[in-house]
Write a structure and sequence with these properties.
ATP hydrolysis activity, 9 strands, alpha/beta, nucleotide-binding, Rossmann fold, globular, ABC transporter, binds adenosine-5'-triphosphate, ATP binding
Length: about 240
């Protein structure tokens, strides 16, 4: 039975690599029309959680989009758009060809390609080779690929990596537009100031354990900045 609520629900994930427990009862949700930031220091377990959510790794527990696992959707790119580090195509391939391959393998019309390039401000790079893109352009192309299927859910791993201040400002506006359209946005970051400026809700993870979740304004209510919250929770003992 498909859950009508358009939320990402992560419940009781446990994961070990060898003897090391890298996820320990990880549970949280990301809600429709809101931007949820998944925050934590290097090695905290963010990418591991997102990989499980996207069916790239296994674990105990469950991780669903609208009540269904990623792999249970016939054409997942029409439901979930994901962007991880790197573009992931042959460097000699053109931007348009890269997006065409992704679109065609997911039954998405190629008419969508100019639209997504326009949304991310890469229309002039349509014929450029992947190997010639800057880091920031590569990030934008990753977002374009994520948007191809006009998905309800966006899962973005460190989306501001490599963006300059103009790019960061562009990203904030872009992601707010997406959530205002009713999308469910989950993004990971270790850049606290970025998250503070853009997120509605925050989930903080450290050493594989969720240490706080809530609306950003509530999590921050007794502290000056998210930076203070983060350090009080991750270094102060929790
Ligand atoms: N395949 C693997 N084998 C062994 N250990 C792993 C593997 N993948 C991840 N880990 C370990 O799991 C822990 C969590 O890693 P993960 O990449 O999820 O962290 P992260 O929060 O995304 O960090 P970062 O911000 O640096 O990307 C780390 O200690 C990492 O070394």
């Amino acid at each position: 039975m498909v859950n009508k609520e358009k939320k990402i629900l992560i419940s009781k994930l446990y994961k070990k690599h060898g003897e090391k427990q890298i996820l320990n009862n990880v549970s949280f949700e990301a809600k429709e029309g809101r931007i949820t930031a998944f925050l934590g220091p290097n090695g905290a377990g963010k990418s591991s959680t997102l990989r499980i959510l996207l069916g790239l790794d296994n674990s105990t527990g469950s991780a669903t989009f609208g009540g269904q696992k990623y792999a249970a959707y016939d054409t997942p790119l029409k439901i979930v758009g994901a962007a991880f580090d790197g573009v992931g195509g042959a460097l000699s391939r053109k931007v348009s060809t890269h997006l065409k391959i992704i679109a065609q393998s997911n039954n998405i019309s190629i008419n969508r390609i100019p639209e997504v390039l326009d949304i991310v401000g890469l229309s002039d790079k349509c014929k450029a080779k992947l190997g010639t893109l800057s880091l920031g352009e590569g990030q934008r192309l990753g977002l374009a690929a994520a948007l191809l299927g006009d998905p309800q859910y966006l899962v973005l791993d460190e989306p501001t990596n490599g963006l300059d201040p103009t790019g960061i400002r562009w990203f904030r506006k872009f992601i707010r537009q997406q959530s205002d359209m009713g999308k469910t946005v989950l993004l990971s970051s270790h850049i606290l100031s970025e998250v503070e400026a853009v997120a509605d809700d925050v989930v903080i993870i450290n050493h594989g354990k969720i240490i706080t979740t809530g609306e950003i304004k509530d999590v921050m209510k007794d502290l000056e900045s998210l930076e203070d919250v983060f350090f009080s929770l991750t270094e102060g003992g929790a």
